[in-house]
Amino acid sequence: MKIATYNINGVKARLPRLKEWLEETRPSVACLQEIKSQDKDFPAHEFEALGYSLIWHGQKSFNGVAVLVDTKAGYSLNEVKRGLGIDGPKEGEGEQSRYLEADVTKDGQTARIVCIYLPNGNPQPGPKFDYKLAWMEKLRARMAEIWAEEVPAAILGDYNVIPQDDDVYSVKAMASDALMQPESRAAYSRLLADGWTDAVRTHNPNGGVWTYWDYQAGAWQRDHGFRIDHILLSPELADRLNAVGVDREHRGREKASDHAPTWAILRD
């Protein structure tokens, strides 16, 4: 089973690139972030035509997550939970579309797949950073509940956290960013301490793997990137981890997202 996460940065704006990636790499499960589409406007038929079944949790203009499974390969999808029950940083804003949880089944075997788009937290300090940390605590609590169910589980998405210094092209350049603050890193580290495995780090212990390159200042051309798209695995899936990778080439295509797809292959 190949599971992948991809911050698409606007499903309508990147639809040709997204469909290319799905057709060329054919992940069994694909978690999308920043779909930037209301539920009623999400182009589900485009993915169904490719042989994918899907669920999505949209929001006008920003945020939004989706989970796709390859029905041609025999996978089925059942929604478990949407949202973590935490309001956005603005008073009266309500909950943002950042969390979607589903059971994915094939041949009688089921895995819990969670797609997340963790808050960015900038500028910091301030209410957006406070919201980021509160959201991470909510996520940790939900991950503990999933752990207690003893189901094979993967938490995929844009975590908006640069875990270590070797996950960024320049520590100095990002030192004041919310993605690299000690509090953000500590919250991520607590997830690992709870027993979850960082799939990409496991196969790249020396770091140096980027999943995001900003559109500004020639970041892609200069390879000024960092790693914020992560796949965390429960012990049941960590034991089945066979390979990981980042589809860097897709970041360099015309009108591409500023993220590259990140994936892991798990043995049946």
Automatic annotation (TrEMBL):
UniProt-annotated site: Transition state stabilizer, residues: 160
InterPro entries the record matches: AP_endonuc_1, Endo/exonu/phosph_ase_sf, Endo/exonuclease/phosphatase, ExoIII-like
Record's protein name: Exodeoxyribonuclease III
Binding residues for Mg(2+): 7, 34, 158, 160, 258-259
Membrane-spanning ranges: none
Site, as annotated: Interaction with DNA substrate: 259
NCBIfam families cross-referenced by the UniProt entry: exoDNase_III, xth
Start and end residues of each Endonuclease/exonuclease/phosphatase domain: 4-259
One Pfam family it belongs to: Exo_endo_phos
Residues the record marks as active site: 117, 158 (proton donor/acceptor), 259 (proton acceptor)
Record key words, sorted: Hydrolase, Magnesium, Manganese, Metal-binding
Cited PROSITE patterns: AP_NUCLEASE_F1_4 (PS51435)
Annotated site (Important for catalytic activity): 229
One Gene Ontology term of the molecular function aspect: double-stranded DNA 3'-5' DNA exonuclease activity
Manner of cofactor binding, per the entry note: Probably binds two magnesium or manganese ions per subunit.
Cofactors required: Mg(2+); Mn(2+)
One example of a Gene Ontology biological process annotation: DNA repair
Highest taxon, organism lineage: Bacteria
Family designation: Belongs to the DNA repair enzymes AP/ExoA family.
